[in-house]
Amino acid sequence: MTGGDSAAAGTPSAVTRPFTEAIEAAEALIASAEFIETDADLAEGLDYLAGGISSILQLARAHDPRHPYFVTSTGPYSKMGLDNPDTIYYHATVDAAGTYVVRGVRGTTADLSFQVLRGDYTPTDVPGGDDAFDDRRIPIADDGSFEITFGPADGATGGDDYFVLGEGASMLAVREVYGDWGAQRGRVTIERTDTVGTAPVEPGSERIAKRYAIAGKMLLARVHTWFNFPKWFYLDEPVNTFTAPRTTPGGLSTQYSSVGHFDLPPGRSMVVTVPKSDAPYQGFQLGSMWYISLDYVNRQTSLNSAQAQVDPDGMIRMVISATDPGVANWIETTGRRRGILQFRWQRTDGPIGVDLGPVAEVVDDADVRSRLPFADVNAIDADGWAARIADRQRAFAQRMLG
After folding, report:
1. Do 174 and 244 lie in a common domain?
2. Which of 17, 68, 33, 277 shows the shortest CA–CA distance to 191?
3. Domain end: 205, 230, 255, which one?
């Protein structure tokens, strides 16, 4: 460390102060959330903040488009943006002027996709997607390996392995999407062609101080953004209903979604009926009012078409409730009265029409079975349910280490 670095950075407390002040401001925002009704709601918000702190510090340190690498964007312990329980998310920071080679091996997941983003999610905007596509657009060898390049327009080769980084491109996002949680994970790496083989400059204390300041701004932006996102796209809809399937704002070009929000007081359940689609991936989940997934490892708060029981008529019927209705497709609210509803269809070949969307009916708990035409097929006992949860826990553990 040089004397100049030390003087520029100031005392140790001054270095970290922007971040610690951002944590305090974020905590105040969370504590003031209008939807908090119970201590459990507040505790979830504070735990969400802890995951955000961990994630933001990692992201601030990985923010180098000259020496990029993929980091986990969101996950079970650092949730944001209604993370899909069936997806592993990665991203790397890029610069529109750079050229980047992405290599990997495709696993056996239901979908593998790439998206170039401009800017970032903010409290007032969704980042523009310069290009979003799944692996059907890239050459993949018989052994599953692939190599593609992202770079400026003037470097384009005209081949199917080159993708242009548009003006303002700042991030390359990669998603692996699972139907079967026991599917084989793939591998993906990134390097910048004009810096590979070199080392980044070692940071001085002034640069470290700047990272803490950036991290503080990122943390507050994250909290502000995801407070607003449900208001933009969910909470204006009539409660306990779903929108018609539509392309996902700021999302993938081959993804459709149907969304809503629920309010189920004690004694009331929602029965959701949806056709099993031909799309390789069709998934449903609940989210909290913090706009994050619920516990999807130890509780069945999500189901995709590979996991769900499909009735003989080709329909998937799910029961959303706080109390166990004794059916395999129970979606647990985990005691929440209010929350988010989300369907996704991915790797689609065409539009998902209204006829493939969900229909919801809210009924008394006692009337649930009368709304299930194949109730006997749907039934599951306590031992069967425990085995179902054990399968989720084991598959999740394998997926995260695979």
Report:
1. no
2. 68
3. 230
Q: What is the DSSP string of 37-60?
A: -SHHHHHHHHHHHHHHHHHHHHHH
The reply to whether 78 and 59 lie within a common domain is: yes
pLDDT digits (tens, 9 = 90+) for 116-164: 998 554 444 444 444 789 999 999 999 999 999 999 999 888 889 999 9
CA-based nearest residue to 113, from 254, 260, 284, 246: 254
CA distances from 289 to 88, 198, 280, 284, 286 (A): 22, 45, 29, 16, 10
Which residue do the tokens 């918000």 mark? 45
What integer pLDDT is reported at residue 131 of this predicted model? 77
Q: Are 308 and 329 in contact (CB under 8 A)?
A: yes
Choose among 113, 97, 107, 224: nearest CA to 166: 97
- Rounded Cα distance between 75 and 147, Å, is 26
CB 221 within 8 Å of CB 319: no
Shared domain check, 288 and 271? yes
| pTM score of the predicted model | 0.91
Pairwise CA distance, residues 188 & 391, whole Å: 27
**Strand 330-332 with 315-321, pairing:** parallel
Q: Is 376 helix (H, G, I), strand (E, B) or coil?
A: helix
**Domain identity same for 31 and 174:** yes
**Which residue segment(s) compose the domain that 89 sits in?**
3-230
Q: Rounded mean pLDDT of the chain?
A: 91
Residues 189 and 201 in one domain: yes
Total structural domains within the chain = 2
Do 25 and 42 belong to one domain? yes
Residues 94, 133 within the same domain: yes
Structure tokens at 92: 């790397």
